[in-house]
Specification:
The complex is a heterodimer of chains A (110) and B (115).
Chain A (H helix, E strand, L loop, with lengths): L3 E4 L2 E5 L4 E7 L6 E7 L6 E7 L4 E4 L2 E6 L4 E6 L8 E9 L2 E4 L3 E6 L1
Chain B lengths: L4 E3 L2 E4 L5 E6 L6 E7 L6 E7 L2 E4 L8 E4 L6 E5 L8 E8 L9 E2 L3 E5 L1
Parallel strand pairs in B: 2-11
Antiparallel strand pairs in B: 1-3, 3-8, 4-5, 4-9, 5-6, 7-8, 9-10, 9-11
Classes of the chains: A mainly beta (110), B mainly beta (115).
Chain lengths: 110, 115
């Protein structure tokens, strides 16, 4: 069964600090991994998308890494801002289907 | 560029009633998706359209859920009759094509509460 596990479930950080979110998956076959940001009451917005040949991809202060051998990905947020408060969802594509994680809720406090 | 539009944004109904949601994808996007997102979970695909044809509806509870995209543009999702466990956010998304690297653009969702 294709599964996507995210950790932690939630975290609180102070403005200006960094944080790292984790994603482990068992999706097979694997084609790509995406990170989405979902603000409260809004639909998810794509941050990054990586194929199995890519190890890292950045989008501003967001940097995603992928280790296709260990089936792990991380999303690093640098110098967090209040606007980073959201749910971050890891999505793994394989066999023309997407498997969604439950998300990590990040709260940034001033 | 206008995003994916959905209406209504909120809906409260009693169990066994019917409800319909509407989605207008980004202009020119051939692929349209309906997802159900229960509180605290990631979205679950209900149905995927390519133009006006169904590509995947394997997780759609067909005894109560139905969806159509008659002219290959707008889409409606209907629940009849609704159950308590249908309380969720219903997200519509669209992409240019159905390729595995395509980015999906999501609408704001319709939040449904079944009492």
């Amino acid at each position: 069964k294709n599964q996507v596990e995210q950790s932690p479930q939630s975290l609180i950080i102070l403005e200006g600090k960094n944080c790292t979110l984790q994603c482990n998956y068992t999706v097979s076959p694997f084609s790509n991994l995406r990170w989405y940001k979902q603000d409260t009451g809004r639909g998810p917005v794509s941050l990054t998308i990586m194929t199995f040949s890519e190890n890292t991809k950045s989008n501003g202060r967001y940097t995603a890494t992928l280790d296709a051998d260990t089936k792990q990905s991380s999303l690093h947020i640098t110098a967090s801002q209040l606007s980073d408060s959201a749910s971050y969802i890891c999505v793994v594509g394989g066999d023309y289907k997407l498997s969604f994680g439950a998300g990590t809720t990040v709260t940034v406090r001033a | 560029e206008a995003g994916v539009a959905q209406s209504p944004r909120y809906k409260i109904i009693e169990k066994r009633q019917s409800v319909a949601f509407w989605c207008n994808p980004i202009s020119g996007h051939a692929t349209l998706y309906w997802y159900q997102q229960i509180l605290g979970q990631g979205p679950k695909l209900l149905i995927q359209f390519q133009n006006n044809g169904v590509v995947d509806d394997s997780q759609l509870p067909k005894d109560r859920f139905s969806a159509e995209r008659l002219k290959g543009v707008d889409s409606t999702l209907k629940i009849q009759p609704a159950k308590l466990e249908d309380s969720a956010v219903y997200l519509c998304a669209s992409s240019l094509e159905a390729g595995w690297m395509e980015t999906q653009y999501f609408g704001p969702g319709t939040r449904l509460l079944v009492l």
